[in-house]
Design a protein that fits this description.
The protein is α+β, with helices and mostly antiparallel strands. It has a 5-stranded mixed beta sheet with strand order 2-4-5-7-6. It has a two-stranded antiparallel ribbon with strand order 1-3. The longest helix has 31 residues. The radius of gyration is 19 Å and the shape is globular.
């Protein structure tokens, strides 16, 4: 635990410095020379501040979720939720980070009811979707869908980007691991916490998470959640 804490603090100290420095630098330019800058430059600086702030918010959310998941006394706040509604809510949360990516929801005719801690599963979905944004070029398509298989609801987040090397797949959910062949399309480094957190949350719900190749190309993340039967009163 002490080694984990040291690694985490080292990563925080190193990686948070970059976006914080960028935010303070852009804000200083706007404060000191804003009236002298062209309108386009002011918009560019404001957009950069917004993007870096969103990245910091996502990172803090992950850190808070890790603290909760790894608490030995953690209790899931389980509620019955429609999976389609959870997916739509997650997409609205990350819409500003799409940057030219197209997101498509694959709907089914079934009402997919799951018994979940909705805040934590939202964190799983946002991590997977933002991960797809970061590791695929602009114009890529990300699809999110779910279907029922037996007593489980299977959720998939897929993209048509460069995919994940076979050598990296066994370790992709390890903490602090970042794939060797791929680097984020944006300038941010990754803590390597997001996918590890996804696994912890899904397993806390009794499910599993895995990565596969999308067809004809790209990466596909799949995880399972306990389904709940819909009780219809006539």
């Amino acid at each position: 635990n002490e080694q984990l804490r040291a690694n985490l603090l080292r990563s925080i100290g190193h990686d948070l410095r970059t976006p914080l420095t960028a935010i303070s630098g852009s804000a200083a330019l706007l404060c000191e020379d804003g009236d002298k800058l062209p309108e386009g430059k002011r918009r560019e600086l404001a957009a950069a501040i917004c993007d870096d702030s969103l990245w910091l918010i996502d990172t803090v959310e992950n850190l808070l979720a890790i603290t909760r998941v790894e608490d030995e006394d953690m209790r899931l706040n389980l509620t019955s939720e429609l999976m389609d509604e959870v997916i739509v809510a997650a997409l609205s949360h990350v819409a500003r980070e799409a940057h030219g990516h197209r997101v498509e929801i694959v709907h089914t005719d079934d009402l997919l009811l799951v018994r979940i801690d909705v805040h934590l599963i939202m964190q799983v979905l946002t991590n997977l979707i933002v991960n797809a944004f970061k590791y695929t070029p602009e114009g890529s398509v990300i699809t999110v869908g779910a279907e029922k298989q037996g007593g489980w609801v299977v959720v998939e987040v897929a993209d048509n980007g460069p995919g994940i090397a076979d050598a990296d797949k066994p370790r992709i959910f390890d903490r602090f691991f970042t794939a060797g062949d791929a680097s984020p399309v944006d300038s941010h480094r990754s803590f390597g916490l997001g996918l590890s957190l996804c696994r912890s949350i899904v397993e806390a719900h009794g499910g599993i998470i895995e990565v596969d190749d999308n067809q004809p190309q790209g990466a596909l993340f799949r995880f399972t959640l306990p389904a709940e039967e819909i009780d219809i009163h006539e």
